[in-house]
Design goal:
Layout: H1 4-17, E1 23-28, H2 39-44, E2 53-57, E3 60-66, E4 69-74, E5 79-84, E6 94-100, E7 105-110, E8 116-120, H3 123-129, H4 141-149, H5 155-160, H6 170-179, H7 193-212, E9 242-247, E10 250-255
Antiparallel strand pairs: 1-6, 2-3, 3-4, 4-8, 5-7, 6-7, 9-10
Helix pairs in contact: 1-7, 4-7, 6-7
The protein binds a DNA duplex through helix 6.
DNA sequence: AGTACCACCTGACGGC
DNA sequence: TGCCGTCAGGTGGTAC
């Protein structure tokens, strides 16, 4: 799941559950999930502290413990959070757990373990060092247009590139291009000013809609591609046929009828 | 700089 | 039933 909207929903969930609870113990079940911090330090440093606030940049979630100490959570393809008291509510692949003194625990669950968990001292420096571009939802149009004008290659590849814009992934890039009537293999350099504006507006609209609906596919508007991601499905916008292709080796769905290559 | 491919992991599903 | 290939909403490295 976790693209920007999912991570934003996780962040709000974190805020309404684990914030301001005193940490009694940190359990690291899969040390491989940790990055840039020793298991020993990660187990001990948060103890006695509480999470004071959260922040999100792209698909990265940060929870602040101190003025210069954040826990960073990245969810890969299968990560999620669960806050619970009763042990039988523990998710199936809990890899790291924060135990609070109210008897609850926050589990970082990640079946495929493709994500990472870290301790970060300098938030801005972390974003810089990890080559993350500006967050997709905090971008002004002028900056967006400037970035695009310096970018080359296929549109889908560009929007998937986290160093270009942080937060979009396979699903939401397809969704945005679907609503802009743009073929995913179109070249960035072929975009008109009007299309740039449309891409920007659509990006914001799609991300905000997904967050607003809690990333619950059932509640997405009827004309969204999500929910019709299968070959030969009927396009919910124009009745055309949904095609499946590979773009930079990722499965890509689009409507062959209304998404034409710009040239 | 862009692209193509492999690798990291686990699990679900379809075909034989 | 069991084995096998393929696929999955992410990212990092490497080679052309």
């Amino acid at each position: 799941m976790p693209e920007l909207p999912d991570v934003e929903v996780f962040r709000r969930y974190f805020n309404s559950t684990a914030l301001h609870q005193k940490i009694e113990r940190v359990e690291v079940r899969k040390e491989k999930m940790l990055s840039g911090v020793s298991p020993d330090r990660f187990r001990h440093e948060p103890v006695g502290k509480e999470f004071l606030e959260t922040a999100r940049h792209g698909k990265h979630l940060f929870a602040r413990l101190d003025s210069h100490l954040w826990v960073m959570l990245h969810f890969g393809m299968t990560g999620k959070l669960q806050y619970y008291k009763n042990p039988d509510e523990e998710p199936a692949h809990a890899r790291v757990l924060f135990h609070f003194d109210n008897g609850y625990q926050l589990a970082y669950d990640n079946m495929r373990m493709l994500g990472k968990v870290s301790l970060v001292e300098d938030y801005d420096q972390y974003i810089r060092e990890n080559g993350l571009g500006p967050d997709a939802l905090s971008l002004e149009y002028n900056d967006f247009a400037n970035l695009l004008s310096q970018k080359r290659g296929m549109i889908k590849s560009a929007f998937m590139d986290q160093s270009f814009i942080a937060g979009l992934g396979n699903i939401y890039v397809d969704e945005i291009l679907f609503h802009c009537d743009i073929h995913p293999k179109s070249q960035v350099s072929d975009l008109s000013d009007d299309l740039r504006q449309k891409l920007f507006d659509t990006m914001n609209q799609v991300l905000e809609t997904a967050i607003d609906r809690q990333v619950n596919v059932e509640q997405f508007p009827d004309d969204y591609l999500l929910g019709h991601r299968e070959p030969d499905a009927e396009c919910p916008k124009c009745g055309g046929t949904i095609q499946k292709i590979k773009v930079s080796s990722r499965s890509t769905y689009f409507c062959e009828q209304h998404q034409k290559k710009i040239s």
